[in-house]
Design goal:
Length: 695
């Protein structure tokens, strides 16, 4: 067996990160080099690119103010309040780690927008040549995002750990990533769904237009939204999840054996191997002209999973790591795959649930909603059972290694589930790229054959987006359970320094714990309601604007040649509304955590986090899966089933998709970021809650 030091594995992590970023650069150059000749697509694509960049710029300027305020507060309070006489350098390092986390998260979103707004045009053009070139263009465009996000997250964690030499600073870095991801996902989700709902309700339901009819003033805003919500937002979300899982694992690893322990080496080794496996998986993605895009995406994911399992087993044998910890990691990886499969069952239009909802739609929208919501509820069971089994098995597998190793096992299972996140992000970013490509193909006048190819790619993208959301929610669930362990480690460290009693568990019969539990249960519901009300208000404003343009612009509704709608006005409405609504929901979640901690202390926070995790996971899975199901049910009808376009079933399925839009693309995927944020806030403020709470 061989010995490997912490420094060596950190250098290895930096090398793999650099390799991933290099692959991202090569893929970007490849996508950019693909042919593009259609002037109409270039024109519309430029509209989309400008709109996405404008929104991102305005959003990041707003979030920069929040970041600056938060950084000042961190310097004052974290890791210890400056009035306690602690070393202020520690507080400054924490603030710098926080800022670094926000910068890398923002960069992930920017990279995603940059490549997606090019890849969608290239994929639309490639669809003229067939499924194979269009798929490869869309997938490699998405892979740029996957490689860049995971490469930068591993790079950031390794640099923070090497430079600062303090695992607690990683919580600050993770909080930076999480806070920006929370607002980016919420803001992008409000933008994209306000535009999508408005475009569908007026265009499809009222006027019987095609999905991406260029006469519709909201259609470009809808395409912009795909990029700012599903690309930039989801990229920041999964960047956050990956960083949080590594941070939680490293905090507990150092608490068990110090900064240079074998546990720390194992965390970095497994994370780096995960990124390497994703690089191999991306390289393996292939499809022939008659191939199935969904199967191609799945097969490359399976390649990544198998490579990761084999390489981590090999490293465990070579470097004499604990096989029990490897087992916990493998359990997380396996259950993540199973959750993906079960999510596919409930959201794929080749499976019974989607077709059942499409059939129900023949009887009207009420039955669409009832059946879709019911299947959404059912879909939560496999994932929640999977999360529960993973936590139980990984805890008991590692607990015999010593005190604290049970929770460390859970953190490693979360790391295992997120180990293939580079591949997962690649698949996810593929979805909005081919979605936009489909719209561009229609607006470019490419004909029914090309649109059918784009629809096939888009359908696979919808399914894989739903799988990604289920996967990211499940991973977030395990991550925040491990962050609960990190919170306990931080509390006990402060307690030992202050001569106070630490905590080992949270007794639900304790009224302080129960107090936190009940409030924690409510926060995901309040958070979701605020985001969806934001979509509602923004969509209503846009519907009014679409009606105004159809009523006041002569020849627009009839499609008179040379008459172009005011796309910019709808983009501006979506942008302004999203920026107005994105901050309050996040602030409520953060301030609720602080309030509970100051009232009831660490025990109340333990209950709060438990309740937040439980209700958050349920709501997130329900909304993400139900929304994906309604979306693909609509596409199943539009493919000519259950009466096809223009039928009663079609109109009902559009209503279902409209309800599902804020479910799956705004509230649902934002909840997992919310539970991560409040968990990190709790860990960072654990000392303050211990020393200054009322009860």
């Amino acid at each position: 067996m061989f010995m490997i030091t912490t420094q060596t594995v950190q250098v290895f992590s930096l090398i793999i990160s650099a390799l991933a970023l290099g692959v991202a650069g090569w893929l970007y150059a490849w996508v950019k080099a693909q042919p593009q000749s259609n002037k109409r697509i270039t024109e519309i694509g430029e509209y989309i690119r400008q709109g996405a960049n404008t929104f991102l710029r305005r959003e990041y300027l707003l979030l920069a103010r929040f970041t600056a305020i938060a950084a000042v507060l961190i310097v004052i309070f974290l890791p210890k309040p400056i009035w306690t006489g602690s070393n202020i350098a520690d507080n400054i390092w924490m603030a710098l780690a926080y800022i670094f986390g926000t910068v890398l998260s923002a960069l992930a979103g920017k990279i995603g927008i940059q490549v997606a707004t090019i890849a969608n045009m290239k994929a639309a053009e490639a669809a003229q040549k067939g499924v194979q070139p269009a798929f490869m263009t869309g997938f490699r465009g998405g892979a740029v995002m996957g490689m860049a996000v995971v490469g930068s997250s591993l790079l950031g964690v390794a640099l923070i750990f090497m430079i600062i030499g303090d695992a607690t600073a990683l919580l600050g870095f993770s909080f930076g990533a999480s806070s920006l991801a929370l607002f980016a996902k919420a803001g992008g989700g409000i933008f994209t769904k306000a535009a999508d709902i408005a475009a569908d309700l007026v265009g499809k339901v009222e006027l019987g237009m095609e999905e991406d009819d260029p006469r519709n003033p909201a259609v470009i805003a809808d395409n912009v939204g795909d990029n700012v919500g599903d690309v930039a937002g989801m990229g920041a979300d999964l960047f956050d999840s990956n960083v949080a899982s590594m941070a939680a694992a490293l905090v507990m690893a150092t608490s068990l054996g110090g900064l240079y322990s074998k546990n720390v080496v194992m965390v970095f080794a497994y994370a780096a191997i995960g990124l390497l496996a994703s690089i191999i998986g991306v390289a393996s993605a292939r499809i022939n002209e008659k191939g199935d895009p969904g199967k191609a995406l799945s097969s490359s994911t399976y390649v990544t999973t198998i490579v990761y399992a084999l390489l981590t087993a090999l490293s465990t044998w070579l470097f004499n790591f604990e096989w029990r910890i490897w087992g916990a990691t493998a359990v997380g990886l396996l259950v993540g795959t199973v959750i993906g499969i079960t999510t596919d069952y409930f959201t794929n239009d080749t499976k019974p649930p989607v077709r059942a909802v499409a059939t129900a739609s023949k009887s009207g929208p009420a039955f669409t909603i009832i059946s879709g919501f019911s299947y959404g509820l059912l879909s939560t069971l496999p994932a929640l059972i999977g999360i529960a089994i993973t936590a139980l098995v990984s805890y008991n597998l590692c607990a015999p290694l010593g005190e604290g190793y049970g929770m460390f096992g859970i953190s490693m299972s979360a790391l295992g589930m997120l180990s293939i996140v580079g591949m997962i992000i690649s698949n996810d970013a593929y979805g909005p790229i081919v979605d936009n490509a489909r719209g561009l193909a229609e607006m470019g006048g490419f004909g029914e054959k090309v649109i059918a190819i784009a629809d096939e790619l888009d359908s696979a993208g919808n399914t894989v987006k739903a799988i990604t959301k289920g996967f990211s929610i499940a991973a977030a669930g395990l991550t925040v359970i491990s962050l609960l362990g990190a919170f306990m480690s931080e509390v006990n460290m402060v307690a030992a320094e202050s001569g106070l009693a630490g905590i080992s568990n949270f007794d639900i019969m304790n009224p302080t714990v129960f107090f936190g539990l009940i409030i924690g249960l409510a926060i995901p519901a309040v958070f979701s309601a605020m985001l969806m009300l934001g979509v509602d208000k923004n969509a209503q404003r846009m519907v009014a604007e679409i009606h105004r343009q159809f009523d006041t612009i002569p020849g627009l509704k009839e499609g008179k040649e040379g008459v172009i709608p005011d796309y910019d006005k709808c983009i501006d409405i979506a942008t302004t509304g999203a920026l107005r609504e994105l901050v309050p929901a996040g602030i409520v979640a953060i301030f609720a955590t602080i309030a509970v901690g100051l009232v009831g202390g660490p025990k109340a926070i333990g209950g709060f986090l438990t309740g937040n995790i439980a209700s958050g996971l349920l709501l997130a899975l329900l909304m993400s899966n139900a929304g994906g199901l309604w979306d693909n049910s609509k596409k199943y009808v539009e493919a000519g089933n259950c009466g096809g376009k223009g039928s009663t079933a079609h109109k009902a399925s559009v209503v279902g998709d409209t309800v599902g839009d804020p479910f799956k693309d705004t509230a649902g995927p934002s909840i997992n970021t919310q539970i991560t944020v409040v968990s990190l806030v709790a860990s960072l403020l654990s000392g303050i809650f211990l020393l200054y709470s009322i009860f």
